[in-house]
Amino acid sequence: MLRAWIVTGLFFMALPGTLLGFSNLMAISARHGSAGLPPAWMEGHGHAQMFGWIGSFILGIGFYSQPARKGSAVRLPLWCFVLWTTGVALRWFANIYGWEWRILLPLSAALEFAAVLLFLSAASHHKRAPAGSGKPRPPMEQWMISVLLGTLGLAAALVFNLVECFHLATGGATPSFPHWLDQRYLVLAAWGFLVPVVWGFSARWLPSFLGRQQPRQLAFASALVLDIAGVLAASVFGLTRTAALLLAVAAVSSGVALMTTRATGTGAKIIGVHPSFPVFIRIAYVWLVAAGSLGVWAAFADRHGGIWGASRHALTVGFAATMVFSIGPRILPHFSGFYRIFSTRLMFACLLLLETGCALRVCSEPLAYEGIVGAAWKVLPFSGMLELSAVLLFAANLVLTFAFGKPFAAPALAQPKAA
Q1: Is residue 412 predicted with pLDDT exceeding 50?
Q2: Is the pLDDT of residue 160 over 90?
């Protein structure tokens, strides 16, 4: 089941997600603006990336982490997988082709929400082990709190999506959210779901992977509080500038909590991955701070969407995709029963292409959209080609791992019976 979740996530990442995003970018670059490009196409790209890719990975790892419980160990994840995959696919189809979208949009939202309810139902039965010896149970660790908040953010984003899809179906003119509403939805999905989940897994895995001490608790807790406050300010109250300032400080606080701890002396665990792995992890958190800073600039100065676009790209590609491309080769083969990623050179190549493409995109998008430097429009297609190449290399590396990788356990040889 975990391999099915991963392969599905790779499909949505490469085709409905990145390939559609690349075609959108080419059209925008040719027209020197997004005028004439259906907003539903951009929403379809974003939904496939956020939920089809990242969401599938998170749900797959979440089910993998839960203890098996008789027959439900297969049935419940299978039903969740079918509902989730069908819902995301229908949403992409409705956004791109517009066929019967008044039916498909609410149906897709209902299927996605039902899948997450099944996941939450399964997770609610997973209780922490008692402390034993009559001692009180220790408090929940911060990384668990962060992942829990991110999961609740996912549920909140899907409720938001469900309600608004029904509104569109009954009174909307096109299969796309109004711009002001889409801005609130994006903050809820990105900073309410994606960021806390990545922070939680970072706090859980990075101390071991990088050979560092545990995160600074006060800074990590501050980042979570500021992030929640920023998401509520933007998505509930529409306080864009206040939210941007809160989220920017939260980004800095998370970097302080996770990236400034002392070394333990054990060194980074780079066996099975490229030696550059720790460097790219730190680059991801630089991108997070850049996303927050660009968000503040956008809240006060954006006129044509270029600065907002750069901020979102720094967050989703610079931060989230870099973390997945760095940690994914470290954990996904192991979780799936393989010793290591198929090729560490492919891992380095896709990360290098991703960072170069993201840097070109984030630097050129405000210059082009806001009319500061006209030549920046010519840079955008190259950034898209580099990022698309990175995505395809990442997907190929994982698929090759599943197809030709060395599994942990080989079939046992038959032993002759004793005479």
Answers
A1: no
A2: yes
Query: Residue 73 and residue 66: Cα distance in Å, rounded?
Result: 9
Residue 394: CB atoms within 10 Å? 25
Cα separation, 111 vs 116, in Å, equals 9
- In this structure, the number of other CB atoms found within 10 A of the CB of residue 22 comes to 18
Residue count of the chain: 419
Residue 334: CB atoms within 10 A of its CB come to 14
How many helices, marked H, and strands, marked E, lie in the chain? 16, 0
What tens digit of pLDDT does each residue of 185-200 get?
999 999 999 999 999 9
Q: Which of 247-256, 325-334, 382-391, 409-418 has the lowest mean pLDDT?
A: 409-418
Strand partners, 263: 212
**Residue written as token pair 């997004």:** 34
- Stronger pLDDT, 355 or 171, i.e. the higher one: 355
Where helices occur in 302-378 by DSSP H, the ranges are 306-313, 322-335, 344-369
Rounded Cα gap, residues 73 and 67, in angstroms: 8
Q: Helix (H, G, I), strand (E, B), or coil: what is residue 212?
A: strand
What are the residues facing 338 on neighbouring strands?
Answer: 407
At 168-183, the pLDDT tens digits run 999 888 899 998 899 9
Q: Which pTM value belongs to this model?
A: 0.91
- CA nearest neighbour of 146 among 158, 138, 154: 154
26 or 74: whose pLDDT is higher?
26
Q: Kindly give the residue spans of alpha helices, DSSP state H, lying in 98-178.
A: 101-124, 142-171
DSSP state of 372: S
- Give per-residue burial for 231-260: e unless 16+ CB within 10 Å, then b: bbbbbeeebbeebbbbbbbbbbbbbbbbbe
Give φ, ψ of 214 to 5 degrees.
-65, 155
Tokens at 207, concatenated: 């101390």
CA 246 to chain centre: 21
**Hey, what are 288's tokens?**
């997070």
